[in-house]
Amino acid sequence: MQNRLEEIYEKLIAHETEIMNLRKGYAVINERYTAALSSLRVLTMSAAEAAKRACVAAEKALLSAEKCSDAARKAADKSVIDAAEAAAEAAVASAEAAMEAAAAAAAASAAAAAAVAEQAETVSLQASAEAATATKRATDAANQAVKMSLAAAEAVKAAKLKI
Q: Which residues fall within 8 angstroms of residue 102, CB to CB, at 6 or more apart?
């Protein structure tokens, strides 16, 4: 009987030790999980911010392309072909910048979406939605910038035909 009690006590001590080790392991895993969630939250917010900034860059490139296109048309009207060509080239460069910004916004939006896939938090979902909206705006601006650069090139072409 005494031996049986000692066996039971040994098993209890073994189980108690195992439970303590499991608790410690859980605490470590929980700490790492919390740190990972925090990192993902920061990544999501940064990706959304990058998408928004790329959107602003694309919209500014669009404005630049519009002004370059306008300058090309005005210069073409006054038979200043070299200036018109330079303005048209600047419009093309602005359109390319807008396309790059739109691509950056898309990449940032994809990063935000990937982070959302890892964590289902309201903040991440909102940031991902904002990044997607910014990407659409950047893409629209890039599209308009390309149209402006084409209009500038057409104005230069028309001016050359007048000569």
A: 54, 58, 135, 138, 139, 141, 142
Gap between the Cα atoms of 129 and 74, Å rounded: 41
162, amino acid identity: K
- Rounded CA-CA distance 56/72 in Å is 24
Helix axes 122-162, 81-118, angle to 10 degrees: 160
Tokens standing for residue 142:
């890039």
- How far apart are alpha carbons 159 and 114 in whole angstroms? 50
Q: What are phi and psi of 78, to 5 degrees?
A: -100, 15
pLDDT at 66: 77
Q: What is the pLDDT of residues 70-128, one digit of tens each?
A: 777 777 666 677 777 777 777 777 777 877 777 777 777 777 676 666 666 666 667 77
Residue pointed to by tokens 């910014």 = 134
- Cβ–Cβ contacts within 10 Å for residue 30, how many? 10
* Residue 3: per-residue pLDDT: 83
- The CA-based diameter of the chain, rounded to the nearest angstrom, is 117
